[in-house]
Amino acid sequence: SAAERLAGVVTDARERSKKKKSDKLAQAAADNAISAIIQILLNHNVGDAAAAGQLWNVWLSGLPCQADEEEGARNHKLLLKLLVEERREVIGEGGANVPRLLGILVDVYKTDMADEETSNGIGQLVVRLGEERLKQMAGSFSEKQQKKLMRAAREASS
Which uninterrupted H or E stretch holds 121? Predict the structure, then answer.
């Protein structure tokens, strides 16, 4: 199926390094493929639950977008929306995916991979999660991510 071919593009590209120009092109192709995958998931009947689950996993593991800023802004905006809606396929069993996905959003906060509206939404999400939950989630974050998380919280609160 088209969805399976798109999934293959994403998986192959994300396993490459990003050093060579051809790898950058592969990453851009993967960014476009994950945009197509999320549109299929949101707008079409994928068939059985297992196939849909597999596609959700490809979309989530393909994030963050690597090369195409337009696709990055589009996908990261959708990630934020689905996270705020607590979409089951996105947040995972018992919210298991939330720390990793919050890390992605923190990474793209105020970069070319997120538009202003998305960056503002990320800040609002961080504030809504509250200090206790953030402390739990940020335990696995790099120092850079933790600083950016605090910055997002500070800027959203001011």
Answer: helix 116-138
